[in-house]
Amino acid sequence: MAFSGTSSSWLASTLTLLSLFSLLIPTNALYFYMEGRQTKCFFEDLPKDTLVAGRFETHVLQPQSNTYAIDHNMKVLITVEETFDNDHRVVSKRDSHSGRFHFSAADAGQHRICFTPETDATSGFMSSSLGAVKVSVDIAIGETSKIETEDKDKMKDIVQRVKDLNSRLHDIRREQVYQRERESEFRDQSETTNSRVVRWTLIQLAVLSAACAWQLSHLRSFFIKQKLT
């Protein structure tokens, strides 16, 4: 009986631990398969003012290898509708083979989230018939979600990059102001030097003119004296 009681206690503890571990496992990731241009929808009952952030990725079945691979020509139409409000559409977004979507529930109620695979009209591949498509979706609900945290981290990174760019722009502007000041000083020095050169040239011309006039006057007096004698 003692052994049976110990086994029951151990089993209860094990079940409790398994229950706790199951709560720690995220349950917001899912994937599903689609055939052709089929539209696949699922429903979420959301409270009012609830933030929903999701990301998705698609893979197309390759007949040659019978494996799923990324097709860069793939387009996906994501729509979100409020079923309680005459299917009022709150999101309609056409994205590439992978992407993100966000929306906030304006009112409490059931929301229908749909995915429709498409392909590039310019591409002949899968233009007539679209093969099997695997869609992986990760949806987080609430402001403390993992996806929103990642988005906030990316926003912080972008903000930091913008701040770095602004600081670099300020440095460039300071350098430009400094260069303009240097150019202004150099221009002032050049103008001062040019004015001094012109002034000195005028002084030299005046001295030479005076010397020439004196020499002419002296020669004239000399020739007059020679003529008189």
Automatic annotation (TrEMBL):
One GO location term (cellular component)? membrane
Q: Report how it sits in the membrane.
A: Single-pass type I membrane protein
List UniProt keywords, sorted A-Z: Membrane, Signal, Transmembrane, Transmembrane helix
Stated name of the protein:
GOLD domain-containing protein
Q: Where is the signal peptide?
A: 1-29
Q: What is the lineage of its organism?
A: Eukaryota, Fungi, Dikarya, Ascomycota, Pezizomycotina
Q: Does the keyword Nucleotide-binding apply?
A: no
PANTHER family found in the cross-reference section: TRANSMEMBRANE EMP24 DOMAIN-CONTAINING PROTEIN
Organism domain of life:
Eukaryota
Q: What is its main location?
A: membrane
List locations, semicolon-separated.
Membrane
The family assignment reads:
Belongs to the EMP24/GP25L family.
Q: The GOLD domain covers which part of the protein?
A: 39-139
